[in-house]
Amino acid sequence: MNLLYLSDADVASLVTVGEALPLVEEAFASLAEGRAQMPPKMYLDFKEFGGDLRAMPAYLPKVAGAGGRGYAGVKVVNSHPGNPARGLPTVAGVFVLNDPETGMPLVVMAAGRLTDIRTGAAGGAAAKHLARKSVSTVGFVGCGRQAAAQWEALSVLFQVREARVAGRTPEEARAFADRNQRPGGAAFRPVGVEEACGSDIVVTATPGRTVVVQDGWIRPGTHVNAIGADAPGKQELDPVLLKKARVFVDSPEQAFHSGEVNVGLSSGALKPRDIAGSLGEVITGRIPGRQSDADITLFDSTGLAVQDVAVAAFIYRRALEFHRGTTLPL
Predict the structure, then answer these.
(1) Which of 41, 75, 128, 234 does the annotation list as catalytic?
(2) Does the predicted model carry a pTM greater than 0.70?
(3) In what order do the strands lie in the sheet with 187-190?
């Protein structure tokens, strides 16, 4: 059996967030139309260590960015917010891509950068379909790896004038601003959380279980990408804001269990009818997204295995192009 092995550095060299955007959009559409198979995430909860391990399988019968054929795969990935203090990443994992015709594994790749890229692309797809057309400011609440990937997507889609960054400390926000500032690009400015929330698009990417964004800080017309809540009990946003906004989830099954809406639903503060629908339904035109410039729209991102399969298949095909003469199957 011939297997290709790709490191995080290999993955980063083979695909950009901009290239992943249409792949992830198509994955959302495939799921909404019932063409994809994707069981809910499976969790092992390590409460004593403050982390968890997740298994995420999916099958896409057709991947537009990978020759139009089908691929399946599974990602095994952790989330340990305390890892940076140990000199380790919060999120790391491996992804195995399989040939659905034979079931044989094709490639094993590190999944840290893969996760960043596909989640950044998902936030970009949400903003493309839900934000107002004119966006001049973006606010970040949390400024780690995922915030950087969100910025990669948003900077492709919008002519942003200013990026407002709120971190755990002013030093963290300044370091993020310095890493992402480009000559002639958006001006990055460290700010407090409330000021970051006064932007046209607000990205929340924190790992906590307490509210960090208050309802009154989000203005009419804002689009929010809620990225941080991806396990039961996690939340970043005031439940009042969720009642007020037009909320779109990536997957109802996952989001109701472990997305931003999970705490509100479990407490009764939020009802399933308060959720407008899924992003895939907006992309396919089944339901409307933003209905007016005054709407507050919100995307609840838990991270979907179909996103991983779509981007991993593209990476695999591109890796083969760069290694002509390989005996690996196309």
Answers:
(1) 75
(2) yes
(3) 187-190, 162-166, 137-141, 201-204, 223-226, 297-300, 246-249, 275-278
